[in-house]
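My main concern about presentation is that the manuscript never shows what a single data entry looks like. An entry of this sort, consisting of the sequence and the corresponding C-alpha cells, reads as follows:
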Amino acid sequence: MKLCRYGKNGYEKPGMIDAQGQLRDLSGVISNIDQETISPKGLAKLRKIRPESLPLVRGTPRFGVPYTGISKFVAIGLNYRLHAQESGLPIPLEPVIFNKWTTSISGPNDDILPPKGCTKLDYELELGIVIGSTAQNVSEDKALEHVAGYAIVNDVSERAFQLQSTQWDKGKGCDTFGPIGPWLVTTDEIKDPQTLDMWLDVNGERRQASNTRDMIFTCAHIVSYCSRFMTLLPGDIITTGTPSGVALGIKDRNAFLKPGDVVTLHIKGLGEQRQLVLPLQR
C-alpha cells in the first residue's frame, strides 16, 4: 500500500494511492494515519480495502508528511561506500547515529527555509525506515518484522553548522530540514529495501544517482543496531544515509544550494519530492 496525507498544512486528510498512481480519499475509513494505523493490526485492516473503491481526489493537493506521531527522527551518517570515499573518511566499523529534531519535519514538497547565518546548504537523498511495532534489542534476522514501510527523506544539512563541532545535530535539525514522503509505502510492496534505484536533481542537473545496495549497513542491520541503544516506537523513522554526489563532496562552493534552487528527489517505488529553496532568513 501507498499511504499518504494530503491538504493544507495542519488540516491534512488520510489518503491512499491506487494502482494507476491516483490519489484516493481514505477519510471515510479512518480519520488519520498515525501510529495505530501503521501497526501490524492497523495495516491488516487497511489491506482489506480496494483503493479503487475510495473516492478519487481531484486536482493536485499538497502532500503532507505521510503519517503523524513521530517521536524520534534517527539518522545514520556515512552509510554509502562512495559517499564515505568522497568525504575522505574511512568506512565506519559501526553505524554512525545522530538525531534530526522532529521540528525539522516537513511535507515532501514544502519549501526549504535556510536559517539565519546559513552559508553551505546541502541536500541528501535518503531512504527512510518507518517503524511499525516496538523494537527493543531485536536481532538482525527479525528486525524488518518491526518495519511498517519506507519513505523518501531529504536530510537537508547546513554544513557550516554541522562541522563546527564533532556533534552534527545543529546542522541537521533546523526547521524544514526533514522533508518526508510523499508516501509511506508498506513492506509488502518493498520486499527488499537493498535494491532500490535513487536519484536527486538540482535545477534539473543530476547530482546523485545510486542504489541502496551501496549501503554499508543494511536496513535490517540498522534497525537491529539502533534498537540496542533506544527503544524504537511505532512511528519512529530512521533515515539511512545518503549516496555520493552531495554538494560538500563536489568541492565547489557553487554546488551548495541557493535561493531559487529546486531540488527533486526520487526513489523507485516511493515516489518523488520537490522542494524550492527560499531566501535566507534575516
